[in-house]
């Protein structure tokens, strides 16, 4: 499916519609096959033991899939997560941003399914894998 929003438009939408994460997540790259988003890791994303928290990684996966869907359908603020599974596979690198690579596996009229691999910047092995299903509201 052709892209209807580029990465600049997605970043602008994120800043405008979700000020609670402004300055924390941004789209790095986008093409027909994949969207890559960055979590700019700061103290608020850490948990005891000096690693990035599971909720921070889950939030990155969720917003990455959401943006990959919007890139294909346009600004639909009410698209929502209906199912999510995440596997935490290894400890993220301390002091490194996280990069989330998303592929949309299915995009239908009412449901979208995507997968995300999260890596520490500069690392080969993923730290988490997430699969999500989103509900897309009907067009008016």
What descriptors fit this protein?
140 residues, alpha+beta, Thiol Ester Dehydrase, Chain A, 6-stranded antiparallel sheet, two-stranded antiparallel sheet, 8 strands
CATH homologous superfamily classification: Hotdog Thioesterase
* CATH class descriptor name: Alpha Beta
Q: Percentage of helical residues?
A: 10-25%
Secondary structure tally, helices: 2
Order of helices and strands: HEEEEHEEEE
Strand order of the largest sheet: 1-2-6-7-8-5
Please give the CATH architecture.
Roll
Brief characterization of the structure:
This protein has 140 residues and is of the alpha+beta class. The chain has helices spanning 7-17, 54-73; strands at 25-30, 35-39, 46-47, 51-52, 80-88, 98-107, 111-120, 128-135. The strands form 2 sheets. The protein has a 6-stranded antiparallel beta sheet with strand order 1-2-6-7-8-5. It has a two-stranded antiparallel ribbon with strand order 3-4.
Descriptive notes:
This protein has 140 residues and is an alpha+beta fold. It has one domain: Roll (Thiol Ester Dehydrase, Chain A), CATH 3.10.129. The chain is built from two helices and eight strands. The chain has helices spanning 7-17, 54-73; strands spanning 25-30, 35-39, 46-47, 51-52, 80-88, 98-107, 111-120, 128-135. The longest helix has 20 residues, at 54-73. The mean pLDDT is 94.
């Amino acid at each position: 499916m052709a892209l209807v929003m580029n990465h600049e438009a997605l970043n602008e939408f994120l800043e405008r519609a979700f000020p609670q994460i402004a300055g924390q997540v941004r789209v790095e790259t986008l093409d027909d096959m994949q969207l890559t988003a960055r979590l700019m890791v700061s103290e608020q994303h850490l948990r005891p033991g000096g690693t990035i928290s599971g909720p921070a990684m889950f939030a990155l996966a969720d917003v990455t899939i959401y943006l990959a869907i919007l890139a294909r359908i346009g600004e639909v603020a009410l698209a929502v997560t209906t199912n999510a599974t995440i596997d935490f596979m290894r400890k993220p690198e301390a002091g490194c941003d996280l990069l989330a690579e998303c592929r949309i596996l299915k995009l239908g009229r009412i449901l979208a399914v995507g997968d995300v691999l999260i890596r520490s910047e500069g690392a080969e092995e993923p730290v988490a894998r997430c699969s999500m299903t989103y509900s897309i509201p009907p067009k008016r």
